[in-house]
Amino acid sequence: MATITGEILVGGEAASGGLPGIRATNPKTGAPLEPAFSFADEADVDRAARLAWSAFDAFRESDLETRAHFLEGVAAAIDDLGDALIERAEAETGLSRRRLGIERDRTTNQLRLFAKVVRAGEWLDLRIDPPLPDRTPFPRPDIRLRQIGVGPVAVFGASNFPLAFSVAGGDTAAAFAAGCPVIVKGHPAHPGTGELVGRAIQRAVADAGLPAGIFALLNGAVETGTALVRHPMIKSVGFTGSRGAGLALMSVAAARPEPIPVHAEMSSINPVFILPAALAERTEAIARSFVDSLALDSGQYCTNPGLVYAVEGPELEAFLSHVEAALALKHAEAMLTPGIHAAFDKGVDALASHPDVQVLARGRDGTDANATAPAVFLTDATRFEADEALGHEVFGASSMIVRCETIEAMLEAAERMEGQLTATLQLDADDIDAARRLLPILERRVGRILANGWPTGVEVSHAMVHGGPYPATADSRFTSVGTLSIRRFLRPISYQNLPAELLPAPLRDETLPALIDGVRRG
Ligand code: NAP
């Protein structure tokens, strides 16, 4: 039977945190949910961080099979929660059961995929440069490299993915795979969902025989998160949320006596470039699919298509009419939290009253609490460039269509874009030349370029990049989705002329993939 007690989870145990906390709220009705959740105080943060630090050496040296089995155990323990997990997540977020079921499968598949990654051993990046004792003028020493976990990681879950980007989400899976203990700062929008998943992780830790200190879940306020990032035994941070909160955590991390990286995924408006032939050929289909992508789950996706560029002309006018018609069929649904709803209203009101912006279309009002109709706005490239605020993210179902006089104007607009997670091309065969000119610009600005699709829906796979230049993320060299995300929590270490018996096990294991003097083995 799944239990939710409102306690914090530290070192395999559940206990009341040192501070009074919150109750979750059903965003559809505004009704508070049981039980009350206590918040971690500084002493709780310190205890969790010390336990994580003391568990780190044993965890990072756990053999690959144990660690892979553990990740699969977390997935199985989440599956075992059954409907109780989906029901609680539905009550806390207002997201549909269907969407939450898909998200749960994504979460457990992600954990199982990381188990495969751990077993395969590529992530260890083993390199062996054999000694060259006779080399002149100097002999070359024996040099061997592997990757090790950076240390305990603080994870800040996201409100919009209560499972896949939260307690056992991508950051946690990648950090565990790298051999790093994880302390999650629970998101206050779904504390009960978080506790159910946290207890599932605790069970998997115990079943795998790993040290209990490798996982903790602390609910708390801003001070809790700040104390966690400041703690000297925390060595890296994974964050998904607003630009303001991401930047605040980055400055806390940078001001530490030992600064640490913050892998923050923040804001992106995911421009879509509808090229002329595609606009002419597929006017209505593109309009409909754009509106579907925009309005999905109240637009609460970091990959929401918040900006559309197209060249003016009769085809664009027809497209705008189809967008209007398609949006009129969408109605407002509850957003995740009153805060996110208020921020959406504020952003939409600012755009609606902006002198250089036209309200193209609104969806229908809904009956839920915390619900505002989706919105599409219209402006032109000159006006869009004149006010930087028009390019800021309005989290939710809001998008700006920008008319460009020519393809050249579209290219110039692309040059001025902030860093983004994605850019989308709607293109047909006759658009290839224009697309070829756009590509190098987009490559400098975004983490993922896609054609004839929509950016919502991020595959968890080996080749996925969910990242991008600032402000999309804090560091464009990394991804927060896909197996490459393990690299955020690893660092390389070299061993020079160490006696064989002192070398770590992976560097003595001849079955693992490695580069031997630069040539691939296995
Ligand atoms: P948020 O305000 O950025 O909060 C995310 C997490 O960071 C929460 O645990 C929050 O804790 C903590 N936090 C916030 N400010 C902090 C600070 N100054 N220092 C330390 N910790 C801090 O995100 P949200 O509540 O999920 O949504 C608010 C806005 O974030 C949205 O309107 C949207 O603009 C953006 N958002 C973006 C994405 C994305 O995928 N990029 C996803 C979700 C939301 P407390 O709440 O306890 O303070």
Describe the structure.
The chain is α/β, with parallel strands linked by helices. The chain folds into 2 domains: 278 residues, Aldehyde Dehydrogenase, Chain A, domain 1 (3-Layer(aba) Sandwich), CATH 3.40.605; 181 residues, Aldehyde Dehydrogenase, Chain A, domain 2 (3-Layer(aba) Sandwich). It is built from 16 helices and 21 strands. β10, α8 and β11 form a beta-alpha-beta unit. α14 packs parallel to α15. It is globular.
Number of distinct helices? 16
Number of domains: 2
Helix residue percentage = 25-40%
What integer is the average pLDDT? 97
CA radius of gyration is 24 Å
Broad CATH class of the largest domain: Alpha Beta
Oligomerization state: single chain
Name the strands of the widest sheet in spatial order. Answer: 2-1-9-8-7-10-11
User: What is the 3D shape?
Assistant: globular
Distance between the termini: 46 Å
**What is the beta-strand fraction?**
15-25%
According to CATH, the homologous superfamily of the largest domain is Aldehyde Dehydrogenase, Chain A, domain 1
Please tally the β strands and state the result. Answer: 21
The class by helix and strand makeup works out as: alpha/beta
The CATH architecture term of the largest domain is: 3-Layer(aba) Sandwich
Major sheet characteristics: 7 strands, mixed
What is the fold named in CATH at topology level of the largest domain? Answer: Aldehyde Dehydrogenase, Chain A, domain 1
